[in-house]
């Protein structure tokens, strides 16, 4: 079984025709990375146990998930109609965090770097996606159980069955492992593991298949299914051979059915198609970047893993267009060159390890590990962005694609991966895609998706030029004239040189012209001249290369929520989400001590003043205790709380509480508002504020 | 031909089954409004001529449009593939304006009023849209030319042909009118008008048909097409009878084809489906509003009119849930009650006039013209929003829906219409939709989309209650028991009262029970008791009503661009877009006098400082003259310009230019930056700044 080179990606991707499908990994796994982790986990500890909160507590995904749903960060779409797998709605706090991430992204990338943001349609005619390769290649393999009608993603099915058998084997060997009972397995529609010992050779076989699971094509999966007797895990029935299933949602544009279309699988195509106009808008100046934020779609066969594998998702993509000549330098590279990244390079992965090394981006480019400055610049900027929104710096790494993961045209590609309870998740891709995308659309449509620039020094090209005596040529070839001329035009410089010698020697040349006469045409020197001459080029024309940082915003949001989640020691039931203020759904909770009407004017006034400062706030004047009200908002990630009590009514002092430390200070309304402004704008930290304002220790009671 | 009551709307709409389709007007026209305007225009002057810029110049739509495309505010999608009608991309300035409008909307509505913003999926399973009525009713009538395969929207076809004939008639009567030549008509694929005089009676007939064009259903359109011999305007061929065409884009969710779905035609459904969770999130407090910003889709048969009729568009919708009892008061109504609105009420429209009256919203609610405070509150808030983003206050009106336009369940509905070169365009709808939407989903799914509140005073209900002696009842009716019991439970209070009398009189009663015995069942007083008793209700359960302000952001953007467009007298070729700073794509243009490197450090420093102030800027250091560079940015709507010249290098003073007046002031860098901040944040006007800083009159040269 040969390993087919594929292009991996968590996000819908462009594919090139000579490569096997747009198959994706389940998450960021690669044979040598996640597999290695799984292997480890199978033998030693679970991946989940390795994911700790910043307070060092193990993340219990079920507890976190239940909190996120209860507080309406997200919810299954159409739940009252039974729901649709892979579709989720964001409720108020989730939607606010999403908006804040997008706004931060826009400031960090679009505004900071003068990118040209565009908003292109999601509806896309088929022809465009044929050119990009998606119609042919953006597919997964699926198997149908002919009896039950159930459909499985073929690689998932193989994986599930073999993993269940390996589990059973470990159990039989007396290793402690969590095993689904038959009843539980049926409920989850998953394969039950039975404690059956396998031959060592079989275990090895299975592990080898699992290690390569993402690399198999349909016929290979079919063989594996037959060889290892893979069946419907619940009923035990046989499944049909895998068939290819295109992952784009198809529809029809307009009233007649003659314009098939799809929902875009990525936002990139619209940017490529508009390249020429964007270049003109940019007054022909290179390099420049376009950017786009919007929904994309992929019709997953059987989505699992919650917010990480969904059918409709928000992306933010940058296409940075750069001259392929001159080493793809970046004018602002110096600003980031000292930033350290945790890198997992391809050679390490090839050796079967997942050992990372920490290196400045300057060094990584210098030693050629990262292909060029522009790519390196974006890796650093991606990391800065992730840290800005609150990602845990110890849970980010950049993994380089291995040669067999990349499309043949790509120079280099790195994924920013975030560590979650699902393992390392690919959240941002950053690829140097060379001139591929612009070229395919240019070739298909003839649109000049190129840059033309006046050369500082005119270029002189020595070349063999051919002249034809049209007066004699025309009558001689009549209707074949154009075909013959085209064949001559297409002659390479080498051939021309050879023909020039022939012509000088024998006074005639023979040229291959398919479809004319015997396929060869003879030309005498009275009709053809071949001479070496100098051509002067004043204009240089080139197709820019594109560096593409591509962000899965929903995945980033989910991973971020795992990173900022923790709970106070001894109080596991009360979770906290320590979003940084810029990302938190609401910045300030206003808490009147009780529902006493005496507090109302002050609360109202604070609301108005905060709004004027551009700080979002919410009032919780419910009858719950102050402690409970704070705890409720800790779950929502509200970083600050302001309490209005009887003292406030007397002297206009209010208290300010920090979510993470639960420490409070007390000062005048103006001082607190000023502190809030600088906290929210990131000019001061809580520590700064705590030091300069008097501590307060009353109030917070459960 | 009877007039079928329809529900009008520019936006995809929910429809109720007993009303004829989701037919929409072509724009905001109604028989008595736009028709009246068209009528006028046919006789006197063109609508376009009536649209003036704020400088009093006639808007030439072709000139404006060409500027908007040239400056990449928008561009046809997939143009290098030939384009797809009804799909447009927004380029950098259009995208920035769109983002700014959305951001302003979010602040004005969501943050200001603590609305619960949600982000729901566009993919929607068929079942949901069956319940909402869209699957059955969201359709237009289309006609096919069997020879050419062309498809026409039936009402558009009739309209076009009759208007062409009326034009021809006017021409024949010697009235000057712009007439398409045959060649032009073919190019536009439009009916050519020939100068043929019509009988007066025929003219009257045609005008009557045109006045009602939006009200005809398929069979009626078929009659009209036959009666007036309507044909393919280009080939003259006959068309087939109209058939209904659903305007939703259909797709299939998941790998098997058993889950048909659609792209949502509006964002509202997701909000309704999540009502229960949102209410819980809001700690059961009423009233509250949800909001959603996102793309919706409608598969137009033959989109025309550029950005005003597109297949994919951005909407912002609010669903304000309110208790139907208590007159739908609004707590903040007092804040807006003195705001004056220009109202076009339904009675005026019924009388065939388009005469508006100006009235405070307080008065409009008081006299019952606007149904309730909550609706009135939103009308005022909608106007405040439109003015904030730069809409011309003289080109806004609120048009009340006539009875035949509204769904039967709606209490009242007003559209905010903006005057454009296409006539009055419906840009925001604001309807009181009663409890319709929550009820249909509740009835379909059984989900409790209701509010339950503890009554302050328990409600005592006097009612006739029926008791059955189960011991006798069961054996008597056996398998029919449940049917009989259900029939008894369903008896109305009136019937119960009558039966109680019967029972007292004759000792037995007769109850109708369909499907049991002879359809009647006799019950004696040993088996049934009917008594008047008092029931105490501690909890009140009700389905909230919903007030729905629904914004077509793309339409607002286009109308706004027409409103802020003008040109300097004598310089028609140079347009300006006078966006208010909050909406302008870029706030400040930085213009070094020349490409002299001496200016670079200062420009760089200004860029950094502006970014830190949160003010977006762009540098134009091209070799064009300062005047030309400013003019280029006037077209983009950049409100302010800063020039760096040799004086600046010497003394750090810079100049600040106002786009609209072209006046300049000169002051120190700090003073100018401070002025910019207060201008952009709306704290000062240009007049304020001009008064307090020294004028500057040099530089601006062409």
UniProtKB/TrEMBL annotation, chains A, B:
Pfam families: HGTP_anticodon (PF03129), tRNA-synt_2b (PF00587)
Entry keyword set: Aminoacyl-tRNA synthetase, ATP-binding, Cytoplasm, Ligase, Nucleotide-binding, Protein biosynthesis, Transferase
GO molecular function per UniProt: ATP binding; glycine-tRNA ligase activity; transferase activity
Highest taxon listed in the record's lineage: Eukaryota
GO biological process, one term: mitochondrial glycyl-tRNA aminoacylation
Aminoacyl-transfer RNA synthetases class-II family profile domain: residues covered: 197-592
Catalytic activity: 2 ATP + H(+) = P(1),P(4)-bis(5'-adenosyl) tetraphosphate + diphosphate
InterPro entries: aa-tRNA-synt_IIb, aa-tRNA-synth_II, aa-tRNA-synth_II/BPL/LPL, Anticodon-bd, Anticodon-bd_dom_sf, Gly-tRNA_synthase/POLG2, GlyRS-like_core, tRNA-synt_gly
Keyword Transport: no
GO CC aspect terms: mitochondrion
EC number(s) reported in the record: 6.1.1.14
Protein localization: Cytoplasm
Subunit comment: Homodimer.
Task performed by this protein: Catalyzes the ATP-dependent ligation of glycine to the 3'-end of its cognate tRNA, via the formation of an aminoacyl-adenylate intermediate (Gly-AMP). Also produces diadenosine tetraphosphate (Ap4A), a universal pleiotropic signaling molecule needed for cell regulation pathways, by direct condensation of 2 ATPs. Thereby, may play a special role in Ap4A homeostasis.
NCBIfam families: glyS_dimeric, PRK04173.1
Family classification: Belongs to the class-II aminoacyl-tRNA synthetase family.
Protein's name in the database: glycine--tRNA ligase
Organism lineage: Eukaryota, Fungi, Dikarya, Ascomycota, Pezizomycotina
